[in-house]
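Minutes, project check-in
Item: structure for the 413-residue chain
Input as provided by the requester:
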Amino acid sequence: MDQRSVETYLEQLKEVKQRGNVFLLFSKGQLNAVYDVATIEVCTLQLFKILELLAFGFVLATGEKAIPAYAAFVKYKNVKEFFAKLGKINQHFYPVPVIPARDDLGQHIWNHPLPSEYLTQEDFAILAEHCELVLQPRRVGALPISLNQVKAANLRWHNKIVCLLNAHLVHSAGGDTAYLFQMEKAGDAPTSTYFELKLEVGDSKSSTVKVSDQKPITLKDHLVRQVDYLRRSCELYDAGHHDEAVRIALTIRVLLHDTDKSKSLLKQMRVKERVSLVTSFGTAEVMSTGFRPTAIFPLFLNSAEGGVSAPFSLPDPAVFVTIAQWWDEVVWMQEHTLTRRKLVLDTANKEGGAHVQESVPDSVRELRQGLTKVTSIRVNGIEVGVPTNHHFILIRQFAHELLNSPDLLELGN
């Protein structure tokens, strides 16, 4: 980056900071746009404008060769194609979030937050789709996802943007120089610091770059990765890609499913017997003998959001069960009675997660069809129909339960 590009980039960051302040004022209720949907749209618009500012920042980091790619992005809003073109010019175009520190000798060192904490390249594309889903022109009626889902998603995305930009490195195309940009505290303008990056070599006779021994991947690392998969798939689901539930099912299978030939990740970690999970269906604890809540129960509890929204609220106070109880709890009772285990494994093994099966079992066909004994759901007098692919709705809820189970999350900390 030349000095002019650095100054322009700092101006971009200043506007990002201002738009972030607008987002927080509306998100926290200190300002409003008269009614909820309009207020949410104001917040979502700020996130989208921040993405546009960052996209131009990538061009500043890459140089004039990136301008044609940026022009195509502005016209077609295709994030993945934009990133692919930038990567061919400058593989270091995306900012690297850091936590600045100094070692015992006073030298600059940079620690890095976890990918689940900041806006990654993959997240950038998902957030763009989320914003489009909320802001796109639509007919009179509710948003395609519930207001509470949009509010929660917007806050998660804003936190990820803050983590990415709070302190980040922008590298040159060759990777030998970098600028450290810092957003600074409220009221202060963003700053930049220039660094020359030097590779450490073994000795003067060797041109080999010294690389530290690679740290082995542990079971805990695998758990963190699977939980990250779960979060990203949920964000894609909430952005309108409901078939992402198939990949959620595959991740749950990796975490929990044991066979004679393979062990689940939690079994390999020797923690499966002592981990408790949240259940959304724990209302059975207070119902009459023999009552088992089914998919239709939470569906109608959530009908104010259109009858198809997921995830729905967890019990308050939370109800915890063992993994064995959670895995074998009945969550669907119609023609077939299905547990989480059956529903997850059928989806992962027969709907394209790990395998594809053209001729699916009757239980899967029933889930695809939805609630056969319900012909219509009306919300506030408006007919919203009956959801199909009910297993997708339920699997999204299972992921919500896992991501709100402290025992599971603590294992990855």
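Outcome recorded: The two ends are 37 Å apart (CA to CA).
No further action items on this chain.
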